[in-house]
Model the fold of this input.
Amino acid sequence: MRGFPAGAPRVVPVAVSGAFHTPLMRSAADGMRAVLAAFPRQALHAARLGLEHPESGAWMEWQAALPQDMADLLEAGGRAAEGGGS
Done:
């Protein structure tokens, strides 16, 4: 994660928090925060990662499907954003 400062997982919510200035958007954002707060781990996933091997110079790439708990999180987040709760 070169280039990301310590605490980077908190950067995005803080940066976009000012965007929710209508009551409807604020309610959706609060619902999303509640869903994320209940998630037992960091909600990070990369479908595909690639890098150049530092010694051989060979390109290496890995792919991973979305874990079920994160798929469930996205579904619950969609319900929260629609005002349906978690």
User: Anything to note?
Assistant: The chain has a mean pLDDT of 74. The CA atoms of residues 4 and 11 lie 10 Å apart.
